[in-house]
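Task: encode each sequence below as structure tokens.

Item 1
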Amino acid sequence: MSEKKRVGRPRARPVDEAESAPDAILRAARTLFRQQGLKATTTRQIADAAGLRQPTIFHYFPNKLEIVREIASQALAPELAFLEAEAERSADPPERLYRYAHFVVTNLVSNPYVIGSPLQFPELTPEAFNDFFTGYERIFEALKDILREGMAAGVFLDLPLEVTTRQLFALIEAGLQAERLDPATAERVADNAALLVLRSVLADQTHIERIREDARG
């Protein structure tokens, strides 16, 4: 008896048996969102790119919005976990600033779930993505807290806090413009960015290499 040929939509790529259906959906969605934005991407396109039939998507995600929500959550998760760990760690503001910038940049250039700045996607509204924007604000406020403590202690230049925080946050987020990088390149980019951030506000530049070594120790 001959084996029946499986009926279904033509697959856009061979099926990777090691990749689960949800992972395939999220991978395909991330690629399409980067290439053509959220609004222009359809669930049918995501299914084709994932090598799945469209109904399979709705088994795991009820709509495109939930796919976006999961990607946004996974993009921020490492940074939020980092902040939790740093809260248990005792360090001076310069060391904390280096570590903060280094980790955030590393996440931005290596985390596959990071698809761009929220400003690139007008569909990402605070009303629809409250959890994401709450987390995003926590990351911003953590930088402000480090700068505030460093300025109060005299180890950072006495600069306007809000403006300086926004400028340095924008500098750190410049990593969003980069493609996903391999670990070695990501490390070099993160180290350079962290040193640039530190030099921007450090009052005494004499011991910057020691601060870097302590932060990485």
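Item 2
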Amino acid sequence: MMVHIWINSPKLGNHYVRIIHMASTTNSKIIKASPEKVYNAFTEQKALEFWLAPNKMQGKIHDFDLKVGGGYTMSLFYMDKTAGKTAENEDRFTAKFVELKPYEKIVQTIEFHSDKSEFGGQMTMEVFLEEKESSSTLVTIVFKNIPDGIDPKDNETGTEESLNKLARYMSDN
């Protein structure tokens, strides 16, 4: 969210101030799998294509390079007539791996491919994996600097749906 304020101060004169507040969200879920298996689901192309897309969307990864400085380009296709950020029914983004700490943490930056300025900028996704009892893992996903064009509540809902799909993926594999 961006707020513009015009300040008229007798001592300081007129000033134009732009305040930028970038939204963030946090979602967590306990997944019945070891941190190693969950980490692999975050770092394998086929797994990501299955579970990362929220409900009513389908994922396709176009390229994948698992290393710090590498990343992937992914399309999320709406299965209904929802307008996408990139094309008619597509949200396409490029993710770049900033940190890969096996079985504990993944940090990536995400940039949407869009001509619409409200989807511009670099969003950060941090994934934390914490081992729990009974071969389970607490997965926490934090998004920072969510673009203005994405409602944080929608981002939170989509992340919750993705985590539920991750749990199903882990129980099936």
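Check on item 2: Residues 23-172 form a domain with the Alpha-D-Glucose-1,6-Bisphosphate; Chain A, domain 4 fold (CATH 3.30.530.20). The chain has one domain: 23-172.
End of task.
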